Amino acid sequence: MTSNFDQLQTETRDLAAAVSRLLAGKPSRSDGKLTVSSLAAEAAISRQRLYEHHREALADFKTRAGGGPLIPNQQALQQRLEDATSKIKRLEAEKQLLKDRVGALTAVVVELTHEAEAKNVIKLPPRRRRSR
Q1: For the segment 71-110, what is each residue's pLDDT rounded down to a tens digit?
Q2: How many CA atoms lie within 13 A of 108 on its CB side?
Q3: Which positions ≥6 away from 31 have C-beta within 8 Å?
Q4: Which residues contact 50 (CB under 8 A, 6 or more apart)?
Q5: Phi, psi torsion values for 69, nearest 5 degrees
Q6: Angle between helices 36-43 and 55-66 (to 10 degrees)
Q7: Residue 21, C-beta contacts closer than 8 angstroms, at least 6 positions apart
Q8: Roughly how many angstroms between the first and final C-alpha of the chain, as a whole number?
Q9: In degrees rounded to 5, what are phi and psi of residue 118?
Q10: In the 8-state DSSP scheme, what is residue 54?
Q11: What pTM was computed for the model?
């Protein structure tokens, strides 16, 4: 009886070999199409098992199977995604800074309110204006 670890290692080896065969155009157990179904058949692993236990290898296969250089639209979209991601990070940092400032200012307002309402505070009369 093989352990789960041994089974995963065996599947990983079989999967790597299957990916190589499919990408080289030399399938031995499938129709040779660059699909998840063909990869599962080529590696003799169920599709469900691929999705559950070999997500990284599956994502790598999908990337490599789509292969080739990015077309201009894809490059532009990739750049927009990277720009948006960096903007999100910058805005999240700014948001945190503003939250910290709001917290500090709230504490000051509370303290000043307590001081103003304290009974031991003597309020000075309003200043009188001198007439000229």
Answers
A1: 677 778 888 999 999 999 999 999 999 999 999 999 999 9
A2: 6
A3: 38, 41
A4: 15, 36, 39, 40, 43, 57, 58
A5: -70, 155
A6: 120
A7: 27, 28, 42
A8: 107
A9: -65, 145
A10: -
A11: 0.49
